[in-house]
Amino acid sequence: MGENFAAAVAAAVPVVRAALPPAPAAALGRLALEPPPRFPDWPEAEVVRSLRSVPSWVVERVHGAVELTLASLTIPAPPITGELTPPQSGSFGFLSSDSEAEAVREARLLIQFRPDLIDLVADLTAGVTADEALAPFLTAEGDEAAIAAAHGAAHLSIALVTTAIAAREAGQPGIAAIVGIALGVAAGRLRATPMPAGYAAAVREKERAEYRLPRSGTTFVDVRDHVFALTEGAFPAFGDFAENGLAEAAAGGVVIRAGTEAGSVRVGVRVLAEPPAEAETHGWEEVVDLSWRAEHGGAALAPSAGVGVTTPPWPGEYRVRVHAYGRDDPEEESYDVWVWAAPAEPPRVHARADRLGHRLRGEPEPALADRPEVRYRWIRRSNLAVAATVTVVTGLPVAEVVRGFGADPDRPEALAELRPAYADPWLAALDLGGVVLVIEENGYLGSHEEVLTAVSRTGRAASMFWNVNAVTRLSFARGGEVLASFEPGLGEPAADPEVTAALAGLDLADYRDLDEKGLVAVERFTGRGLHAEDLEDIERAGVAYRIPG
Fold it and tell me: Distance (Å, rounded) from C-alpha 545 to C-alpha 408?
């Protein structure tokens, strides 16, 4: 190849580079930052694989931008294709699609009968890029977009000029094929080439310019060995959490001790513009404040299973408040992490209630809390998970209960036919001997006052309704009178002693297990709850009643 070839490429690169639009050049320039592409299983040349992974809009924009420039460009260069195998003769089959970009199709066609030409182009591009004559084109400066565009344009223009020289000498002057092969070669090289030296600083400046407060979001974190972290980079070193039983500030981030050994937990992150007025402890078992110094900023949750909120992308002193719930109960484990700028001060514990925290602090563990709602969590795995009303009635036969809902007990229908219809509401009723259980999948009539009045006239009735929008209603009736009907956590029940007893010890202000808490209250008021076996019995019976609209 020699210096003469590198000089020839260097002479033509500025002309081709000037024709490249910034947007597709920048997209190519960022390829090293993207996850490795997933290629098809069938055998295919590496250049074609790389070309397929380039977004179609980039291929089309580059082809259109350089087509006339390459067609009119004369590039005096020393011979380089003398050892290539002559083109194959004969015929072969070739399959293409109308949706395939012309540059991709022509590149695939060329590689079928001139594979050694493609290999030569890849080798020549690698060699000439490393030559001192091309070094001035590989520098980049400016903001993030400018550096990315310069990086992509430099490698692509070198590949375009090199491909054009080799292809024309080999008798393959088609512009579409030249563009396709050059894009495949350049994309492969850009994915393997580090970003220019100033790129990281430019990204940081871009993040700082665009960062706004406050911000918040929720993601899921993959806990490993009982810990996850808010970190600026590598996972920070941590100790035994003996000081507060929940979190530790460390060089590079904050490490949080989870109850789960390995698995995914929900974590909400809030970055505040100013310190919170007060600590929110309701609904949380452990709440701790601690100070942390960010070395450069931009800390994120790790190991993260999704894209989450990052801390401000600049160094400084911050206060971090960690809220934890459910560390003793992995089904419900969740966290909130709040961050705001503040001078360093000693840690502060706002709440310390879970057994794990006491154990880590070396304190006697509190008694295991009685949470009757936990035994109703099976509904999350049932047909009732998304939306339903469960009504329990005492003192009335099944037929009268069905009539109270506005259905005809003498006209049963197949449950399997009513379930997918959605034309009219329907119910399924189960006779439990003195107690009737009514199930409405995605229905709500059991929460209506007129229904509760009708079915409770000789006994009691209670219902719990919930839907996909987190709207709920808990209702109690006795002797044909509705005693209370309200949205748990928002409304206030009547001061009836039996309703009060049914709600005793149930924290309705805490949204967790809210549907399950309502079912506990229904069971306490009527003396009979919903069992998983009840739904199985309803399925086996296969009978339901249409409620005319």
Answer: 7
* Integer CA distances (angstroms), 125 to 136, 186, 278, 382, 530, in order: 16, 8, 62, 60, 72
pLDDT, tens digit, 9 for 90 and up, residues 131-190:
999 999 999 999 999 999 999 999 999 999 999 999 998 888 899 999 999 999 999 999
Q: How far apart are the first and last CA of the chain?
A: 84
Q: What is the pTM of this model?
A: 0.71
Pairing of strands 334-341, 262-271: parallel
409 in Cβ contact with 399 (< 8 Å):
yes
Whole-number Cα distances in Å, 182 to 13, 52, 146, 189, 280: 13, 12, 22, 11, 58
DSSP reduced 3-state for 37: coil
Which pair of tokens denotes residue 213? Answer: 């407060």
Residues 6+ apart with CB under 8 A from 351: 279, 281, 284, 285, 286, 287
**Contact of 151 with 137, CB cutoff 8 Å:** no
For 341-356, the pLDDT digits (tens) are 999 999 999 999 999 9
Backbone angles phi, psi at 285, to 5 degrees: -95, -30
Nearest residue to 452 via CA among 483, 412, 410: 483
Report the C-alpha gap between 139 and 135 in whole angstroms: 7
User: How many Å apart are CA 524 and CA 515, to the nearest integer?
Assistant: 15
Token pair, residue 137, equals 């084109």
CB 324 within 8 A of CB 223: no
Would you give the DSSP letter of residue 199? H
Task: Give dist(CA 85, CA 156) in Å, integer.
Answer: 26
d(CA 252, CA 270): 19
**Helices and strands per DSSP (H, E), number in the chain:** 16, 18
* Cα separation values, 303 from 231, 267, 349, 373, 496, Å: 9, 12, 26, 31, 50
